[in-house]
Amino acid sequence: MRETLDFLLNDWLRVGELSARERFADHNAETFGAVLDTCERLAREKFAPFNRLADTEEPHFDGEQVHLPQATHEAMRAFVDAGLLAGSQDYELGGMQLPCVIEMAGKAFISKASVAMSGYAMLTKGNANLLMAHGSEAQREVFAKNEFAGRWFGTMCLSEPQAGSSLSDVATRAEPEDAADPLGPRYRLKGNKMWISGGEHEMTENIIHLVLAKIPGPDGKLVPGTRGISLFVVPKKLVTPAGELSGERNDVALAGLNHKLGYRGTTNCLLNFGEGRFKPGGKAGAVGYLVGKPGEGLKCMFHMMNEARIGVGLGAVMLGYAGYEASLEYARQRPQGRAIGPGGKDAAQPQRPIIEHADVKRMLLAQKSYVEGGLALELFCARLVDEANTGDADAAAEATLLLEVLTPIAKSWPSEWCLEANSLAIQVLGGYGYTRDFPVEQHWRDNRLNMIHEGTHGIQGLDLLGRKVVMDGGRALQLLAARINATIERALPRPALAERVNELAAALAKIGRATKSAWATGAPEEALANATPYLQAFGHLVLAWIWLELALAAEGESDFARGKQAAARYFFAYELPKIDAWLAVVASREPLCREMQDAWF
Amino acid sequence: MRETLDFLLNDWLRVGELSARERFADHNAETFGAVLDTCERLAREKFAPFNRLADTEEPHFDGEQVHLPQATHEAMRAFVDAGLLAGSQDYELGGMQLPCVIEMAGKAFISKASVAMSGYAMLTKGNANLLMAHGSEAQREVFAKNEFAGRWFGTMCLSEPQAGSSLSDVATRAEPEDAADPLGPRYRLKGNKMWISGGEHEMTENIIHLVLAKIPGPDGKLVPGTRGISLFVVPKKLVTPAGELSGERNDVALAGLNHKLGYRGTTNCLLNFGEGRFKPGGKAGAVGYLVGKPGEGLKCMFHMMNEARIGVGLGAVMLGYAGYEASLEYARQRPQGRAIGPGGKDAAQPQRPIIEHADVKRMLLAQKSYVEGGLALELFCARLVDEANTGDADAAAEATLLLEVLTPIAKSWPSEWCLEANSLAIQVLGGYGYTRDFPVEQHWRDNRLNMIHEGTHGIQGLDLLGRKVVMDGGRALQLLAARINATIERALPRPALAERVNELAAALAKIGRATKSAWATGAPEEALANATPYLQAFGHLVLAWIWLELALAAEGESDFARGKQAAARYFFAYELPKIDAWLAVVASREPLCREMQDAWF
Lengths: 601, 601
Known about the structure:
The structure is a homodimer of 601-residue chains.
Chain A: H1 2-12, H2 29-47, H3 51-56, E1 60-61, E2 66-67, H4 70-81, H5 100-114, H6 119-134, H7 137-148, E3 152-157, E4 173-178, E5 186-197, E6 206-214, E7 229-235, E8 237-239, E9 245-249, E10 252-257, E11 268-273, E12 286-291, H8 297-333, H9 358-390, H10 393-429, H11 440-447, H12 457-468, H13 475-491, H14 498-518, H15 524-527, H16 531-553, H17 559-575, H18 579-587, H19 592-595
Parallel strand pairs in A: 3-6
Antiparallel strand pairs in A: 1-2, 4-5, 5-11, 5-12, 6-7, 7-12, 8-9, 10-11
Domain Acyl-CoA dehydrogenase/oxidase C-terminal (chains A, B): 348-462
Family (chains A, B): Belongs to the acyl-CoA dehydrogenase family.
Domain Acetyl-CoA dehydrogenase-like C-terminal (chains A, B): 480-596
């Protein structure tokens, strides 16, 4: 993977050019490489050897504490000690001022080694980043800084048992207590939060929850809809304004752990806020401090959600990558069968490694095109984040808009196709792949979560077709189309890419037409009835574009370059044509699904 | 499901007409219904409540015995006591002379309740059926009869650690010992067999293994290739010609259990034959009796394999069906979100059941089209078996040929698409679906086996494109095309089906052209490089045909009929168009995969 990563960063994204920017002035190819070296070593030594253990020794709750394998404690400690939680932060926050794209490239190694063991890091970083953007100075100083230092870990608490995809139905109440608390306006929260990853553990002395809740109106009622949602920072243990533990336990109690299909190394919790299990200040109610303004909770949270969605995408990619590497290694070593030649097969000859069979190569090429393409996409998004943060005003605005339209793809596409990669990895190993003696079955189980959390596939489709491609009069989609056309322009002079150029141009035109047709009647219920097939087609368009980019970047006749050319060709020959089937129902506003009646099932 | 099953059997396949045949003369709609009632009750009482237990209490080996949950013992006993193992056998064998199609319809209930707990039955029945076809009278009397009676269970032992898909590399040796044994020519076997389902357990007093092995030539060497393979019946405990246990243990020893991703209720074993753990007659070597002629082992075994492949298909379908029912029930009860109307959503209104969302209905319709279509396909194949067994000569020959071309589809298509149904069921349940508190994650794990065992997807593709569609000058494909065209003829007068008729005719023509193009150069390595995409396209063509058949059979405006029409429309609108992408690489003989080099990965 390192060679591909270096290719993507250096030859394709040209990250070296970032050193010219003031924020990254201390960095160069060497410092970037050192970060990757560190992550690669940590992944190999602290995470990969324990990934199966984190699955079999599922977290358990003894009524008082949640127990995780010691290996998880040690791996996360090593991650923190290497300064990786704060990698992209300011020097004054203990950070390294790394570009996001380098931070993400480093994270790729960790995720590939154990996405579940490292889940705590992604949540903590996202939580602290949100507080940096929307918290008060005291909140940044007390909470975010201690999170970046790895002293405390963080969570995001959105869902409730009755409110998963429908956040407008959040019912956790926040009653005001003291508007003048140094840590921010103080409230008492009461409600139940579901699916809280990292919600309980003993790895750090405190856990910082970011919680969506509603402040009741003068009539004591909660405002319906998302407008009523505010955001609160709720520590598991209360802290002083100086950032020390006060010694008092907040009223946040673990109600139970979820027992999952996979991704078991990350605890997943049902948390009760304010049920009276603990009585801070002598009374029930979880103490929380308002972050940002009342009613703007969801807006603030989306700061974390977008980051989390790209993080989910990267995790999905790296699970796919892990399976690809495992099945490639197996295919090279496992003898089985013989080549089909003009004269059939000669059973008297020794068996050949299965990598020589066309169908096995097909399964490996599919995986390669999914996982390398997916990795390129996630790094491209991270590079856009850097542009949004450090580019000039126009470039930053463009990057921000492109991120809007690419985030649903960065989240959903690998969740679907790198899961498929994991299934193909099992298939390459055959019966062995179906046993727990090999890692590929765990990758597949772990990866199945990614189409669900941080916004399901259905939600991503609605976000893309219902919001992102129509926002600002379709400006984000136009920007993306301009980028795709620019790639096509660059590829035009290359005869070897002529077919690919035509196919990509045709696919882009089809997406454009389907988008227009979907909205031709202006009726959301008609347009959005096929939002998921639209999401699938859009994702394949984006990946085809990425692969044309990579084919352009991988020049020459080296084995490495030929591999990239082959994967690009695979994607165009075997994958891109699938968009026609998906777009047909979008363009015709096929009404079957919305007209279907319960009684007919 | 019962309503759909009755519709498929009575309205579509008209099984009542079978009563006119001598073999089924005692049967009628009532006796058929009674069998289904029995199976439905057994499934509900003895299997379904323990399916999760069979997963969590995985079989374990204490060094002497393999332990299964008591519930599995009791469920299999109840199955045997109801006479279901011998359902389609002659009266004189203790059977009921049921048509295969009825037997399979009954089995559908059991498989839906617990495919893994009931795996032993499928193997035993297949084993005994093979002996009925190819065994000597003594073998039928001693082994098959006791298997049908459920006194002993059976297995099939093909794979070895170094010979999975490549059976020509079977290395188990069979040395002649006594040509005049009353149970058949007696040999001593020595070798290791892998992936043996049902290979060890204590449910029955004996286990009857059917084992592929090679008889050495005069030079002591094994003949390379499949021609050298012979078939032996090898009991775990030796038996007398009178069918009683002799008291002596055969030299068959469990080397270990495989620990699987799913399907855990069926033991899966590594068996050592003839390693000397036991010494029947005072010496090492597993005692086995030749079945059929030397060198014809694979031909005999395929008798069981074809049956097993349709059985695998049914199992895959029923896992899909179980997930469909679970997710449908959940979607009807779970409130979340609100309808998208022209004015957006009104958060002040109560939440609505998720079955009202178009995307949820899409996921349910997809499942419905996969699992009901898949069930129809498996029953159709079973009905063909009845035709092959009891039809007049021409009809029997035609049915046999159709079965040849449909078996790879009956096996592979549900393995892929009913697995996808299981994934959609998880998605409908969201986070809950990802927990082990709901059954859908287990269905998905269980179903992942079906693309692997009894011939992988890759093997099915080679069988279809490399053998079945070209055999007898393409006669099987022509027959299928004639059947499809007959359906089209019947649908022509129905205006509501006009679009479907055109689409099916076009798809059939595309398959015909792609088949020709694939073989245009006559080079197997060129044709077969894309055998798997061909298999996928062919499967979707067959299912589209099945759905047009069902749309024709489901007349009227009842909710039931409208559901079938909607599922048919779903399949044609959302699924059938996928064949273009698959066939493009087949028709162009896309050489990418076979030309790909190891070093380029």
